[in-house]
Specification:
Blueprint lengths: L2 E5 L3 E5 L8 E2 L6 E5 L4 E9 L3 E11 L3 E7 L6 E10 L2 E13 L5 H6 L5 E5 L5 E8 L5 E4 L2 E4 L4 E3 L12 E8 L4 E10 L2 E11 L5 E12 L5 E10 L11 H10 L9 E6 L2 E6 L3 E3 L3 E14 L1 E7 L16 E10 L13 E8 L5 E9 L7 E25 L2 E12 L5 E8 L3 E7 L4 E4 L2 E8 L3 E12 L1
Parallel strand pairs: 4-7, 5-19, 17-26, 24-30
Antiparallel strand pairs: 1-9, 2-9, 3-4, 5-6, 6-16, 7-15, 8-16, 9-15, 10-11, 10-14, 11-12, 12-13, 17-18, 18-23, 19-21, 19-22, 20-21, 24-25, 25-28, 26-27, 28-29, 29-34, 30-33, 31-34, 32-33
Length: 478
C-alpha cells in the first residue's frame, strides 16, 4: 500500500448539526475505524476551470465517539491532488483535530490482488467444480503455483482467494486520523482540487441567405474523467486564464446543436458575474455530472443578430524589399465573419473562449457546415472575428511594376493589385498591404487608409464577373 502523508501538524476542525450515523469499528490498537461514503453526502459543489481543473466541495455527516479514529473519506475523485485537501467544520471548530492525513491510491486490480497472496495458499476451481489447494510462489509475468509438490507455470483453474487484504481498496480514499473530544454529530466540508475535469464553450451560428445576419447559440460542454460522480451538484464555471505552478468535436455533433438554433428563446441557465480578473458562470439549479460523461448545457440562444461578412486580400512585407516580380499568382482571398458583442444585438455578455461553427441552409433548406474558428475570451462591446476559409470565386493577384533605388536607404516601388470576381453579384474586398520602413504613398488609383504604422488598406468594390485593379506607388526609407 502506497500512502502520501500530507500533514503531521495538528489542524482544528469542528462539529455540525444534522447527521447520518456512521458506525465505528474498534481496532486492536485502540483506534476505531469508520467509513464515510457518498451515502453520507449532504451537498456537493464543483467549480470547473478551463484548464483541466476542478474545485470540489463535499459536505458529509458523520458521528464519532470520543477518542482517536481512523476515518476513511471515500468516493473522492481518482485524480485528486492530495496536497490541496482542506477539511473544515461547518459548526464547532474545537471538537475534533486532524492528527494525520493520507491519500490511499493502491487500488484494487487482479495483478495487485494476487501480489498480496504470494507465498500463501489459495484455492483453484477446476473444470468439474472441485477445489484444489495451491501455493502461489510468484506473480511476475504470470502466476507460478506449487501443487502437490510440483511447480505449475500457470494453471487452468479459476483462482479463489480467502479474503480481501486490508491494504487494498476499491476506490481512491482520503484517510484521516482524527482525535474527537465529543460524541456530538458532525457535518464537515472537504474541499480539494482534481484534474480530469474540464469545460469549454461551443458556439453555433446559422447564417441567413444574405450573409448579413443569423442565429447564435452557445453551449457549455463539460467533460468529466476525474474518477468521481458529482450528484445533484451546484455548478460554477470560471472563464479566464488562471495561472498555476507547474479537443475537437465531430461536425455531426455541431450539426445537432445547429438544428436547435432558432427555437423560441429560453431564459439563460447561467448567471454571469465578474470574479477577480475572470468571469464566473453559475448554473441556475443543480445538475449531476457522471464519471466518463460529456454533458452539454445551454449558455445562450439569440436569434437574428447582425453579422458582417468581409473579404480580405492580404499581402506580405517581404514583397517590398526588392524587385521580386509577381510574388504569388492567383492568391487566395480570405473570408471572415464579424459579430459585435453588444447589448443592442441582445448579446453583451462576456463570451468564454471556444470554437464557433457556422452553418448555412442550402437551396433544399438542409443545413451545411461552412467553416469554424477558435475565439478567445471576448468581453462585452468587443468584436468576435471568425475566419471562415478562402473564397472560391474571388481571387487576387499582385504584380510589381517598378522597383527603384533613389538614394542610400531610399526606395520606390509600384504595385498593381488586381481582384477578380466570378460571382453573380458585386462584392466588396479589403486589401491589406503590410509596408515596411518609413513610407509615403506618392501615387494611387483609389482612396486608401493608413490603418497602422506599417499597414496600407484599400476597400474596393468589384463588379460581378468583373475585376478591379488598384495601382499605387510607395516611397520607403530604412
Amino acid at each position: 500500500m502506497r500512502k502520501i502523508k500530507l500533514f503531521s501538524l495538528v489542524m482544528s476542525v469542528g462539529l455540525a448539526a444534522g447527521f447520518l450515523c456512521v458506525s465505528a469499528v474498534p481496532a486492536a490498537s485502540g483506534v476505531s475505524r469508520a467509513a464515510v461514503t457518498q451515502e453520507n453526502q449532504k451537498e456537493v459543489a464543483i467549480t470547473i476551470y478551463n484548464g483541466n481543473l476542478g474545485l470540489v466541495k463535499d459536505v458529509r455527516d458523520l458521528v464519532l465517539g470520543p477518542g482517536i479514529h481512523e476515518v476513511k473519506f471515500m468516493d473522492v475523485a481518482a485524480q485528486i491532488d492530495p496536497t490541496t485537501v482542506h477539511l473544515k467544520s461547518l459548526t464547532d471548530a474545537a471538537g475534533v483535530r486532524i492528527l494525520e492525513q493520507n491519500y490511499e491510491y493502491d487500488l484494487l486490480n487482479p495483478q495487485k490482488l494476487l501480489d498480496k497472496f504470494v507465498g500463501k495458499t489459495v484455492k483453484l476451481m477446476v473444470g468439474d467444480g472441485s477445489l484444489i489447494d495451491a501455493v502461489l510462489l510468484s506473480n511476475n509475468n504470470g502466476p507460478i503455483y506449487k501443487i502437490n509438490g510440483q511447480i505449475h507455470l500457470g494453471h487452468h483453474g479459476r483462482v479463489i482467494l480467502p479474503d480481501l487484504p486490508d491494504n487494498l481498496i476499491p476506490k481512491p480514499t482520503l484517510v484521516w486520523l482524527l482525535q474527537n473530544r465529543t460524541g456530538r454529530p458532525q457535518r464537515v466540508e472537504a474541499s480539494y482540487l482534481t484534474g480530469g475535469i474540464t469545460w469549454k464553450a461551443d458556439y453555433v451560428v446559422v447564417l441567413n441567405a444574405k450573409d448579413n445576419g443569423g442565429d447564435l447559440s452557445g453551449w457549455v460542454t463539460i467533460d468529466n474523467k476525474s474518477g468521481a460522480t458529482y450528484p445533484d451538484a451546484a455548478l460554477k464555471l470560471v472563464a479566464g486564464d488562471v495561472n498555476r505552478a507547474v479537443g475537437r468535436r465531430e461536425l455531426r455533433d455541431g450539426l445537432e446543436l445547429a438544428s436547435k438554433v432558432g427555437a423560441a428563446e429560453t431564459p439563460r441557465q447561467f448567471q454571469q458575474e465578474s470574479f477577480f480578473e475572470y468571469h464566473l458562470y453559475s448554473l441556475d439549479g443543480r445538475t449531476t455530472i457522471k464519471q466518463n460523461q460529456t454533458k452539454q448545457i445551454s449558455l445562450l440562444d439569440v436569434a437574428e443578430i447582425p453579422i458582417k461578412k468581409e473579404l480580405r486580400f492580404y499581402g506580405a512585407s517581404q514583397y517590398y524589399r526588392g524587385q521580386l516580380g509577381t510574388p504569388i499568382s492567383n492568391q487566395k482571398v480570405s473570408v471572415f465573419l464579424e459579430i459585435a458583442n453588444k447589448e443592442q444585438h441582445r448579446l453583451g455578455m462576456p463570451l468564454p473562449k471556444g470554437i464557433v461553427r457556422v452553418y448555412k441552409a442550402a437551396s433544399d433548406r438542409s443545413l451545411q457546415f461552412i467553416g469554424e474558428d477558435v475565439i478567445d475570451h471576448t468581453p462585452k462591446d468587443e468584436k468576435v472575428k471568425i475566419k471562415m476559409g478562402e473564397a472560391f470565386d474571388v481571387v487576387g493577384e499582385r504584380t510589381q511594376r517598378d522597383w527603384r533605388k533613389i538614394a542610400p536607404g531610399l526606395y520606390e516601388t509600384e504595385w498593381d493589385v488586381q481582384v477578380r470576381n466570378h460571382k453573380k453579384e458585386d462584392v466588396q474586398v479589403t486589401i491589406i498591404e503590410p509596408v515596411p520602413g518609413d513610407w509615403d504613398v506618392i501615387k494611387t488609383s483609389h482612396p486608401y487608409e493608413k490603418a497602422e504604422a506599417h499597414t496600407l488598406k484599400y476597400t474596393v468594390n468589384v463588379p460581378k464577373d468583373g475585376k478591379t485593379t488598384v495601382n499605387y506607388r510607395v516611397r520607403m526609407r530604412w
